[in-house]
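Example S7 (structure tokens).
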């Protein structure tokens, strides 16, 4: 089991998304500045669009799962949710799943995009097992009822 606090995030996917975000913004901005036929409004429009698309890629790189002594914080693309260990009934990463799902004591399931097989399947499986072991050791059946 990992020492707490621990943060799980798709490192390779995050690196690719952030690199693409910066590269796209720089390329679009440079091309916009090099095109002589564009007026000032068109240049601003192109740079604004590049910034907007870069922001979307940055949002896609945001997911993570942070486990500490009190529980788990799941940060997905636009939402963050804090869970006590007793709320997590099961940690699931089945073959073909795009990311981990947390089965909760209220009968719902919460996607945890911070652990996703994508381009690093072995790391995701290792992280899912570590989170499962933490959930099993921190939350007891008596607390979940």
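Recovered sequence:
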């Amino acid at each position: 089991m990992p020492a707490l606090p621990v943060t799980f995030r798709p490192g390779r996917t995050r690196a690719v998304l952030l690199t693409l975000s910066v590269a796209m913004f720089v390329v679009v901005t440079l091309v916009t500045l090099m095109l002589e036929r564009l007026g000032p409004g068109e240049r601003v429009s192109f740079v604004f669009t590049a910034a907007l698309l870069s922001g979307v890629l940055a949002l896609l790189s945001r997911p993570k799962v942070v486990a500490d002594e009190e529980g788990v914080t799941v940060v997905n693309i636009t939402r963050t949710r804090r869970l006590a260990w007793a709320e997590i009934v099961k940690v699931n990463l089945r073959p073909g799943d795009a990311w981990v799902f947390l089965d909760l004591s209220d009968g719902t399931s919460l996607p945890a995009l911070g652990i996703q097989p994508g381009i690093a399947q072995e790391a995701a499986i290792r992280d899912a097992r570590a989170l499962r072991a933490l959930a099993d050791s921190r939350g007891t059946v008596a607390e979940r009822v």
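Notes on this example. The mean pLDDT is 92.
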